[in-house]
Amino acid sequence: MKGVLLVNLGSPDSTDPKxxxxxxxxxxxxxxxxxxxxxxxxxxxRGIILNTRPKKSAEAYQKIWWEEGSPLIVISxxxxxxxxxxxxxxxxxxxRYGSMTLKKGMQELVDQGVTELLTIPxxxxxxxxxxxxxxxxxxxxxxxxxxxxxxxxxxxFYHRKEYIEVLSRSIAEGLKGFEYDHLLFSxxxxxxxxxxxxxxxxxxxxxxxxxxxxxxxxHRFCYRHQCLETTRLVAExxxxxxxxxxxxxxxRLGFDPWLQPYTDRTIERLGKAGxxxxxxxxxxxxxxxxxxxxxxxMEGEEIFHEVGGDDFRTIPCLNDRDDFxxxxxxxxxxxxxxxxxxxIA
Length: 345
Description:
Elements: E1 2-10, H1 17-28, H2 38-64, H3 71-85, E2 91-97, H4 102-111, E3 116-121, H5 128-145, E4 150-153, H6 161-175, E5 182-188, H7 192-197, H8 223-238, E6 245-250, H9 263-272, E7 277-281, H10 290-306, E8 311-315, H11 322-337, H12 340-343
Helix pairs in contact: 1-2, 3-11, 6-8, 9-10
C-alpha cells in the first residue's frame, strides 16, 4: 500500500521557556542548520544561545500562540485533514523537530500497512536546513527502523506552474483593496556558505548578480536561485510593474554573511525612501509560523512605522487553502497512479 507523509518544521510543545529551550536545542544542533564542527556547535548553541534565547523566543511564541496551540501545528493539521479527505490512501503529518517526530509519522503509516511512502517536505524551495535535513533524517530512520519501506520524496516545487498559479492567486487576494507602493517578497535567510555547499558544480554559485540568472545544473539545489525565480514567476503571472516589488531575506543568526538584502533593513530603507504603503509576502513557507507572524507581521510593521511608513499589510502563507490542498492531492495522485520517478520529477 502507498502512503503519504507531510512534513513541516515543528514547534515547541508550549510557550514555556523550558519547552522552547528543548525545541531550540534540537533545531540548532542539527548540523544542516548550523553547519560547523560539532564542538563549535555545542559551544555556540549550548554555551551561548540557549543561555539567553529561550526566554526571548518564549515571549515571541506567547504573542502568536493560538488557543488550540502552535499556529504552525494547527494549520498543518488542517491541511493534512483536507488532503486526507480527498484520498483513499493513508496520509500522516510529522515535524522535523519537536514531539511530532518523523519516526512517529512513519510508524503511523507502517502500522496501517504502508510499504511505499511519499514524503512531502512542505517547503517550495530546496535548502540544506529544510528539505535536505528532512530527506537525510528520513533515510536514517528507514535504514534503522523501516528497512522494508520504499521511499520517494517530492522535489522542490517553487517553479511548477500550478504552484505559481496558487501562490499568485493568494497574493492577489491578499492585495485586494490595498493600494501598495511596494510588494516585498521576504524569504527565510541562510548563510551564504550553504549556497556554496549545495553547488553540485563546485563553482557556479558566486552569489553575485549573474549566477542565479545564468542556466546551470547548480540551480536544482540553489536556494537563492529558487527564491529569486519564485519572485520572478509570480511577478510575471501577476503582471507586476518593475520597481514595485523586490526580494529580501529574513532571520539571520551569528556573524557570518547571510543572504542579502536583509528584510529588516530593506523595510527600513524603503520606509525612509518614502514608501508609504507596503505589502509583504513570505513564500519560503507554506504555513504561517513564528517567523511570519511575529518577526514579519509584528516586528516588520513596527520598523516600517518607525521610519514613516503608513500602511503595512502581511499576506498570509498558503496555509490550508483549498486550492493548495487540492494541488497536493493532484501531485500525490500523480505519484500514486504513475511511475513515481517521472510523476514527481
